[in-house]
Structure formats: C-alpha cells, structure tokens
Write a structure and sequence with these properties.
Length: 235
C-alpha cells in the first residue's frame, strides 16, 4: 500500500520540520506539502529537508488559495501517482502523527473513510481551546449533522482523516465547491451519499504549538451556507 499525507501550509515555519520529522518515522508514508506562498520560509524549509523529492514533496502556489483547493490539488497529485490511502492532517501539530497506525488499522478492516473524532462517545478530547471556541465547534457539528442527516457521526468538521483511493475516485474533485473548513463537511457528505463506508476513531486535538489559526468569520459563514447547498443539491 502507498500512503500519502497531504499537508496544506501557510506560514508554518515554526511547525513544518517537527511535523515532517514525526511523519518520517513511518517507512511507507510519503508527504506532499501544498504551500500557499508562505512569507515565513515554510517552502524553503521543505526544500532543504533531507527526504525532499524522495519521501517529501512540495507544490508551491502563487497566493493563499485556501484549504479545500489545497487538498483537491494534493488528492489529484496522489491519484495520478498511484497512492492508495490519503491522509488529511493539519501542519501545526494539532493532529498527532502517532495516531496514523490506528487510521490504517481501520482501513484494513474495510472502511473507505476514517475520521479522527474529538467528540466520539459524547466525550470532548480537545486541549487548549477556550469555552467559546469549543462551543462553536460543537454547535457547528450539531448544525451540519442535523441538517444533512448525519447524526451518526460525532465530528464531521474534523480535519484529521484518511480516504481510500477508490472512494476519492467516486466523486468529481473539480466540483468540490467549498474551500475553508466547510470542505470537510462537503467531502464527508458526498462520500457518504456515494456509499463509502465511513467510521470514526477517537483522537485528541491539541491547540497549535506555533503560528496563528486560519479560522475566520468568512470561513465559518461558508460552512454555514454549504450545509444548505448540499441538502438541496446545489453543491
């Protein structure tokens, strides 16, 4: 099996080497960094990494083009090169690379999509968030899963995931409309509707070690709207 971790980056110089070091502990994992013209030297750090162009690859984009298009670009790149399993992961160490074997274990059980959930079994596994941010995240999940009829999932907005190649091939990636965190909702919904077998595993989410969060009011609004567009078949 060929595994590819897609890492979208924008000004992650403080974190990118640590993330790559952790991922290189896995022999069969390759990493594709999609950098949106970071101004802090993120791309230069990737280019000088010892495994660059061997196990670590880089696509540089001319400006900040967003999370959704970064993942779509990464998925297309990996599909063309024959990768079997694709991981989404934040590049700021919010997602622990040590969880990767548990995702792979679920894939071997026959699941097409594995979502790392912060809220599985009515628990809250988030470190470093204040109450307001936690409330927004919980409400966002309740809002999206209720409207879309996906109440069986506890964390549809989670960005730590694994997709099977055959599942990604069931959707037209060029028609993915959302670009912020709504991307996670749209992907889960469309893959579920196409019959992909989806499950969740518990993860612990850690607030970023360095750099700044990419969350904004515009991104939250996009997520609120995309749910209704999906429900009525407009996306």
């Amino acid at each position: 099996m060929k595994y590819l971790v897609v890492l979208p980056t924008y000004n992650e110089a403080e974190n990118i080497r640590k993330v790559l070091d952790s991922l290189m502990n896995y022999e069969n994992i390759h990493v594709l960094v999609i950098d949106d013209n970071s101004q802090d030297g993120t791309a230069e750090i990737v280019k000088t990494y010892p495994e660059f162009n061997n196990k670590v690859f880089l696509i540089q984009r001319p400006y900040k083009m967003g999370l959704g298009t970064a993942y779509v670009t990464g998925f297309k790149w990996g599909l063309e090169r024959g990768y079997d399993i694709f991981f989404e992961m934040d590049a700021d160490l919010s997602h622990d690379p040590k969880d990767i074997p548990r995702f792979i274990e679920k894939m071997k059980e026959g699941y097409d999509v594995v979502i790392g959930s912060r809220y599985i079994n009515n628990t809250i596994s988030v470190v470093g968030w204040d109450f307001k941010r936690l409330l927004i995240s919980k409400f966002g999940n309740w809002y999206a899963t209720t409207i879309l009829g996906l109440k069986q999932f506890s964390d549809i907005t989670s960005g730590y995931r694994a997709y099977r190649r055959t599942c990604l091939e069931k959707i037209d990636l060029d028609k993915i409309k959302s670009n912020g965190y709504a991307f996670q909702i749209e992907m889960a919904y469309k893959l579920y509707k196409r019959g992909c077998k989806i499950t969740e595993i518990p993860i612990i989410f850690y607030e970023r070690n360095g750099g700044s969060s990419k969350m904004s009011r515009k991104i939250a609004l996009e997520a609120a709207i995309i749910v209704w567009r999906l429900k009525f078949g407009k996306a």
